[in-house]
Design brief:
transmembrane, SSD, 6-stranded antiparallel sheet, Alpha-Beta Plaits, 4 domains, alpha+beta, Mycobact_MmpL, Multidrug efflux transporter AcrB transmembrane fold, 22 helices, MMPL_dom
Length: 695
């Protein structure tokens, strides 16, 4: 075989390729972009475009919280006005308004009158905006003078700090994961070289995927989220595939090195290739989503699988061919009968163990029924972050969310009479006040002239601002609030925009597409499993058990991160909802890893069944041969991923806890109990396939 005969050349070529890819990958992070939560083509996105084009303004994405030192905000007008003018002079700031320039708008002032806000629209795409806020505005406008204390907040400022903190946490976790992973692999293999090879396959996958993503950025938009899934899945799949290949190579070494490599590639290699095909084609279904940052999960996931499979089936076999018998333990491992006996116990009472396993998974999954998807906010950051501290002060002192105003835009309604419409909007539950060109409206009544009415009109049309109360945007209330606003009859066609509308439209559009993606993933998985294992029941069980594993993971994520269990231990602040992106990210990670374990176990069981024709014996032998491998991979990866829970950003903590939990449940309850129990109950029906002769 080519890999065996040209082992040295393959390894040198692999080293050179890795160095070249590493040089390309070095520029990947700078080429990735920070995506906003928006649904392309939605009403809120169209509203944002009209705001920028016709009104030269946009959503308030930067907030300066101004605190008067020892007095009220009315006594520091000169200093605050100068601060506003300084911000307006920044070349990327397109619009600025404040308590002082808005005729003492009470929604822009704290309850006790000692604080007020300056709001700004910083122009540019998400990457440019956040970089400018981080590099030019965050530090310079966080200040203390004789008259004022100034803090910086805003959606883009929070995103900038989240990205910065997450990058530090991720690097720290990776620095901890690498030595921990290496140490655990050395304990497992009893060979340092094999541990380094396994880790090397994972790193090759990460480097090669980042390089490929760098090339893709010239064609499509790739989100920074792609780097997260690349690191997590690259190491995970690299370890899984390498463990499986090396384990089979060691089994076959008694017949010689060349025979061992060839047999390993024919058996374990086929399984790895098939596993990669299933995972890659399933993750490719994410490309059906019309959102760049979610499609980035698909791009990264497919590339990770391809590169991990390439590393495990080309570079690793060449290295094993060089090592030969040196890959064996110094002392032969004793053949354990633990998993065989465990399998006998499970298959002796399959109904009892099936019910027990389902009950345990059901208990873990139960909280998932209460999953609530809400708007992400600053509380994903630790309390020590400056933007988090500013937002904590805003929540404590302000009754309204003036920075999250809902814009109701009539692009061709310049001459329309908006007075009845504005009055009706002000009566909607959750609206503190409505600003229109015709005045300010509260509870259905006009209470005065509009501050700066020129900001609310353009040569083409007019717009209104509905200022929400703070309570209405908490949890999942934003959706109902937007529905109430949109239900108010308007005198002309109106576009509803603003940050709450963008998040609500994004969530609604995502909910519409997720079922399609789920059907594609489950359908692709079923077809591929049925084609390879020549069975209809096996893919059905595999799909159901994978869903059970994911349900358990989501249950724990809801229980911990939504409901706040162990929040003090992990050091995060629960807000009662989950960010819409991370259930999907966790689905990608958990699905990829759990499918690996499923394919590894079923491959050994199927192999033994085809040799013996005895379904019960095949289950026991397959469990004995694959369970130690799956368990070792699970322990190694679960401990490694759990290190992400030590981060300061809730997103990384979710990755750590969710991935570790999914791996443990999948490798123990699902693969060690439910799979053998259900296969025992099914008996020969496991292998039924249309057109197959009975065996």
């Amino acid at each position: 075989m080519f890999v065996v005969r040209h082992r040295t050349a393959v390894l040198w070529a692999g080293l050179v390729l890795t160095l070249v890819l590493g040089a390309v990958a070095a520029g990947t992070m700078d080429a990735l972009v920070l995506s906003r939560w928006e649904a392309p083509g939605s009403e809120s996105v169209r509203a944002e475009q009209v705001l920028a084009r016709d009104f030269e303004t946009g959503n308030a994405n930067l907030i300066l919280l101004v605190t008067a030192r020892g007095t009220t905000v009315d006594a520091v007008s000169a200093e605050a006005t100068a601060l506003e003018a300084e911000l307006a002079a920044d070349p990327m700031v397109g619009d600025v308004w404040s308590y002082w320039s808005q005729d003492r708008d009470p929604t822009l002032r704290s309850r006790d009158g000692t604080q007020a806000v300056v709001l700004a629209w910083v122009t540019g795409d998400a990457t440019a905006t956040r970089a400018h806020i981080r590099d030019a505005l965050l530090g310079s406008f966080t200040r203390t003078t004789a008259a004022l204390d100034v803090g910086v907040a805003g959606a883009e400022a929070v995103s900038a700090q989240v990205s910065e903190q997450a990058a530090r946490d991720f690097v720290r976790a990776e620095l901890l994961v690498a030595p921990l992973l290496l140490g655990l692999l050395v304990l497992l293999y009893r060979r340092v070289r094999l541990a380094l090879l396994t880790l090397g396959v994972g790193l090759f996958s990460v480097i090669a995927t980042l390089a490929a993503l760098r090339a893709l950025t010239g064609v499509v938009e790739i989100s920074t989220f792609a780097a997260n899934i690349t690191l997590v899945l690259g190491i995970g799949l690299g370890v899984d595939y390498s463990l499986f290949v090396i384990s089979r190579f060691r089994e076959e070494l008694a017949h010689g090195t060349e025979h061992a490599v060839v047999t390993t590639l024919r058996t374990a290699g086929r399984t790895v290739l098939f596993s990669g095909l299933v995972v890659a084609t399933s993750l490719a279904a994410l490309l059906a989503l019309p959102y760049p940052f979610l499609r980035s999960f698909g791009y990264a996931g497919v590339l990770v699988v391809i590169t991990a499979v390439a590393g495990a089936l080309v570079l690793l076999p060449a290295a094993l061919a060089v090592l030969g018998p040196r890959a064996l333990r110094r002392r032969p491992a004793r053949r354990t009968t633990f998993w065989y006996r465990a399998g006998e116990a499970v298959t002796r009472r399959p109904v009892l163990f099936s019910l027990a396993g389902l009950l345990l998974v059901g208990v873990l999954a139960a909280p998932a029924a209460g999953l609530r998807i809400g708007l992400p906010d600053d509380r994903v950051l630790p309390p020590s972050a400056s933007t988090r501290q500013t937002y904590d002060a805003l929540r404590a002192a302000f009754a309204t969310e003036a920075n999250d105003a809902v814009h109701l835009i009539a692009p061709r309604g310049r001459d329309a009479d908006v007075r009845p419409y504005a009055a009706a909007l002000s009566r909607v539950e959750g609206v503190a006040r409505v600003n229109a060109t015709t005045g300010v409206y509260v509870d259905g009544r006009r209470i005065g002239a509009a501050p700066n009415p020129h900001r609310l009109s353009s040569a083409r049309g007019t717009r209104l601002e509905a200022i929400p109360t703070r309570e209405v945007l908490t949890g999942t209330g934003a959706t109902a609030f937007l529905d109430r606003l949109r239900a108010v009859p308007a005198p002309v066609d109106v576009l509803v925009g603003g940050y709450p509308a963008e998040l609500t439209d994004f969530r609604a559009a995502l909910a519409d597409r997720v079922p399609l993606v789920a059907v594609l993933i489950l359908g692709i998985t079923f077809v591929l499993l049925a084609a390879v294992f020549r069975s209809l029941l096996i893919p059905v069980k595999a799909t159901v058990l994978n869903l059970l594993s994911l349900a358990a993971m989501f249950g724990v994520l809801v229980f911990v991160f939504q409901n706040g269990a162990f929040a003090d231990v992990l050091g995060f602040t629960p807000i009662g909802t989950l960010d819409p992106a991370f259930p999907i990210l966790m689905f990608c990670v958990a699905y990829g890893l759990s499918m690996d374990y499923e394919v590894f176990l079923l491959s050994r069981i199927t192999e033994r069944y085809r040799e013996t024709g005895d379904s019960h014996r095949a289950v026991l032998d397959g469990l004995q041969r694959s369970a130690p491998l799956v368990t070792a991979a699970a322990v190694i990866l679960a401990l490694s991923f759990s290190l992400y829970a030590t981060g300061d950003v809730m997103y990384l903590q979710m990755i750590g806890v969710g991935a570790a939990l999914a791996i443990v449940v999948d490798a123990t309850v699902i693969r060690a109990i439910l799979v053998p129990a259900l296969m025992r109950l099914a008996g020969r029906a496991n292998w039924w396939f249309p057109g197959r002769a009975p065996s």
